[in-house]
Amino acid sequence: MTVRDALVGHLLGRLDDLESGLAYIEENSASGAVPGDAIRIMQIEDGDLDAIFDEDVLRSRKFPLTMKDVKSWITRAMAMEEMDDKHALFAELAALEDAFEDLEQKVRDAVWAIDEAANMR
């Protein structure tokens, strides 16, 4: 296995976990989420109570990230398989990580909170 293969595999695994986590959040939503709601929920500002408690308001808000971005990150990670220049490879790795790490952490925290709530029942 090459370094490139390891990096691409690692990135794709994280992005798969991100997609799965977003789906899990939607599946466990008390308000009947529709596709795309989880990524919106992860971007709500702390004080935006209207978006927190009203899904119509949530869905009307414009957020920086959408599921198209997640798909784009996956496509970019897969394209790294064709990169031969190590500097370009690591630059793209860094750019991708910068793009999704904050969302990734929020999704992990939300999945953990859902699991904890289920275990407390």
Structural features:
single chain; 121 residues; mainly alpha; elongated
> How does the overall form come out from the CA principal axes?
elongated
What does the largest sheet look like? none
Gyration radius (Cα, Å) is 16 Å
Secondary-structure-based class equals mainly alpha
The DSSP helix count reads 6
Structure description:
The protein has 121 residues and is mainly α. 17% of the residues are buried. The longest helix has 34 residues, at 86-119. The protein has helices at 3-27, 37-41, 49-53, 55-60, 67-79, 86-119. The protein contains six helices and no strands. Helix 5 crosses helix 6 (86-119). Helices cover 73% and strands 0% of the residues.
Write a concise synopsis of the structure shown:
The protein is mostly helical and 121 residues long.
List the helices and strands and how they pair.
Elements: H1 3-27, H2 37-41, H3 49-53, H4 55-60, H5 67-79, H6 86-119
Helix pairs in contact: 1-5, 1-6, 5-6
